[in-house]
Amino acid sequence: MSVMVPDTLDEALSPQWLTAALQPRFPGIEVTRVVPGPVVERVSTNVRFTIECAGGVPDGLSKALCVKGYFSDRGREARHVGEREAYFYRDLAPESGAKTLRSVYADYDTTARHGVVITEDVVADGGEFLDAASAFTPEQVAQSLGEFARLHASTWGSPRWAEAHWLEPRLDGALRAWGVEAITERVEANFSGPNGLRIPTEVRDAPGLVQAYVRLAATLTAEHATSDWCVIHGDAHVGNLFLDPQGHPSLVDWQLVQRGMWYVDVGTHIATALTVADRRSSERDLLDHYLDCLDANGVRPPSRDLAWRSLSRGIVRGFYLWGITAHVDPRLIEILLHRLGSAAADHDALSADLYATPH
């Protein structure tokens, strides 16, 4: 690290620290004033702010920026979750080709286990962050799948990323941390309450979903050892998108980035981004479009039949993640459980037959 990762929000927003942090990319910069803006406090702390500089803000740098770190008492207890995102923005994002936030600083303190990222403020430039209630069309999903294809193709079986510790697969992280019984209780709380009212009856089965996910995690471990893996986003629901000022979908929130299989992202994304009716009428075409994008980016895609079968696994990944989700607006959880549950029912995605390693 050339500049120490800031420990406090006050430090991160100080002209002195920002001057040092921005110097490697903008030599000679001197930040003279920082004007804090809106603060969003979850586990991470996200603060929009503007800067003033001696002689003006340098060319190529926006005056409107956003810092993301783990500065609150709650955030300090979970600082390690920012590791992957900080490394992604620092090391992988520039060459992945996928549209995402433009980072001007990103680093991780291995002693404090704290990752901090500073990006340009896309909202100030006219961008829009999405969630499950946002209107999103199949045509837009085709664009966002193109971004996932760029990420996947740029890292497909790449020796450069094969040993990166921060990309270690961790799809079973919550299972190992909490155990099957506690995970099942969390899913049951969602399924049996208001959030689960529109989940189709045949898949409103908390133990069945958890067992399907256990099988999926085991299958992914086996596939990773024998098949072409790539770097995946890992949490590819519609709420981890923003529209740039030109209206193009871009990817955001990289805490779960890891080595894995392409379908983890694609299945989750198609099932969460569209209404049930739109997904049913367009998912085969969208899957074909993604496979064509892989081909256009130099990767030989799997067969259509194999890809269609594999899509179900990505649906289970999303269904599981939103089944265990608690600290999000219940309205959004309900929408996504309806969409993912409907997709799981349509694809018979909890069937044990789907978790034999395909050939």
UniProtKB/TrEMBL annotation:
<protein>
    <submittedName>
        <fullName>Phosphotransferase family enzyme</fullName>
    </submittedName>
</protein>
<dbReference type="GO" id="GO:0016740">
    <property type="term" value="F:transferase activity"/>
</dbReference>
<dbReference type="InterPro" id="IPR011009">
    <property type="entry name" value="Kinase-like_dom_sf"/>
</dbReference>
<dbReference type="Pfam" id="PF01636">
    <property type="entry name" value="APH"/>
</dbReference>
<dbReference type="InterPro" id="IPR002575">
    <property type="entry name" value="Aminoglycoside_PTrfase"/>
</dbReference>
<feature type="domain" description="Aminoglycoside phosphotransferase">
    <location>
        <begin position="138"/>
        <end position="291"/>
    </location>
</feature>
<keyword id="KW-0808">Transferase</keyword>
<dbReference type="InterPro" id="IPR052961">
    <property type="entry name" value="Oxido-Kinase-like_Enzymes"/>
</dbReference>
